[in-house]
Amino acid sequence: MRTMVKMVPLLALLVLPLAQADTVDEVLKGYQAQGAGNFSAQKGQAMWTEKHAAKDGGAARSCTSCHGGDLTKSGKHAKTGKVIEPLAPSANPKRFTDIKEIEKWFKRNCTWTLGRECTPQEKGDFLSYLRSQ
Amino acid sequence: METKVRIWDLPLRLFHWLLVAMFLLSWWSAGHAQHLDLHLLAGYTIAALLLFRLMWGIAGSRYARFASFAYGPRQMAAYLRDLFGPRSVHPVGHNPAGAWAIFAMLALLLALTLSGLVVLGGEEGHGPLSGIVALETGIAWHEPHEWLAWALLLLVAVHLIGVVVESVLHRDNLVAAMFSGSKSLPAATPAVANHRLLAAVLLLLWLSAALVAALPWWRADQDHPYQPFAGRSLPDSESWRNECGSCHQAYHPQLLPARSWRLMLAQQEDHFGESLGLDQATVDELLQFHVTNAADQPLMEAAWYINHSLRADEAPQRITETPYWRKVHGAIPESMWRDPQVKGRGNCAACHSDAERNTFSDAAMHLPRPNPRGER
After folding, report:
1. The complex's ipTM?
2. pTM score
C-alpha cells in the first residue's frame, strides 16, 4: 500500500507530460484543419521576440514584454508587475495541458502584442517553439 | 499624634497605575488603525482591571470598598460647599467629590470596553462579539466609542484638578500616597493590609497574558509577516481567482459596487487598454459572483465605507478612484507609491498583509520601510 502511495506523484510526473503532448498535438492538428501548413519552431522563436509598435504610442511590444527572455524563468506583467509563471513545459509541466486556456491566452495576448488575433499558422509556430522549451 | 498609615493596598495601587498606563496607550494607539493590536492590549487589560476593581470594591480592603465611599448627592454638595471654608471635612479615603468622579470613571471605562468590543466585533469581525454584532452595528458604535473616550478624558482632568486641590488644601500629597499607599493620619486610624501576594499573582497573570498576545509579533519574519488577527473570511470563487488573478491581484467584488462590475464586464473588450476576450459563459459566471458579493452588500468595513462614499450614479472602474480610498490613502506621500517595494497604487499587498484575503483589516497594514536605494 505504502509503495502505491509513493507511486502516485511518480505516475503524475509521467502522465502530465503525456497529457501535454496529447493536448498540444490535438491543438496543432486543429490548426492544420483550419488551413495551416507545416509548423516551424524556428519561425515561432523569431516571432516570439519580434517587436510591434503599440497603437497607444507606448513602448514597442513583444511576447517577451511580459514573459521575459528566458522561458524557464518567471515573467512579469508589463503593466501590473504581477509574476507570470514560467511558460517552458520543462520548468512548468502544467503548461499547455488545457485547450481552452491555450486559446484564451493566444486570443488575448496576440491582440495586445500584435494588435490583431494570430492566424492558425502563427499559433502553430508559436506552440511548436514553446513546447520545445 | 500623626503617623504614616497605609490606606491603599498594593493591588489597588497596581490597578491605578496600570490603568493610567493603559489609558495613555489606548489614547496613543486610537488614531492609528495600524496600532489596533496595542489598542486591544490596552482595552482587554482595562476590562480585566475593571473586573478586579469591581470585585475589590465589594470584597476588598476597607478604603477600596465601594460602600466606604458611596456618598449621596447631598453629602457631595455639602463637601463642595465647605471645601474652602473652616468647616471643611477630610475623609481618610476618597472624599465625596473624588468618589463621584471615581464611580463615573469606572462607569465610563465599562461603557468604553463594551462599546469597543461591539466596534471590534462589527467592523473587524474579531473578539468575543464577532459573528454576533452586525457590520453596520459596529460602524454605528464607532463614534459613540470615541465620544465616551473624550468624556473619560474630561473626567480624568476633573480627577487631576481634584487631586491638586485636595493636596494643596489639606497639605497632603495624594499622588505620593497613591505610590506609597500611606498618608499621614492620626495613629488611631485603621490601616489596611498590603495584600502583596494577591498583587504578585495579579501582576503575573497580566504579564503572562500580555506575553501570549505578543508571541505572534515575536515570531514574525520576512516571509511570515506579523498578522495580529485575521478578520472574517469573504466569499471565494475559483473562476474569479483564475480569471482576474492571473494578470493582477484578484480584487474582491466587495471593493466596488455591483454597477461598477456590470460596466467593467460589459467593457471586457477594453479592460484598461487590453482586450480580455472572455467567452460568454465565463463572463456570466464572473458577473454572478461579482454582483452578489459587491460592496452594495458590505461584509467588511472597507466595503461599507467605499459604497457609502459613492453617489448612486457613479460606477468607478478603479478602486483607487473611490472617494473613500482616496481619503484613507491621502496622507501617503507620492514617493511611497514610486518606491520599488510598493510599485504603485494597485499593489495592495505592499502594505496590507491580508491583501490576498481581501479583508483589509486595520491591524494588518504596515507601511514598508523606505528603501535607501529606491527612487526618491
Report:
1. 0.80
2. 0.81
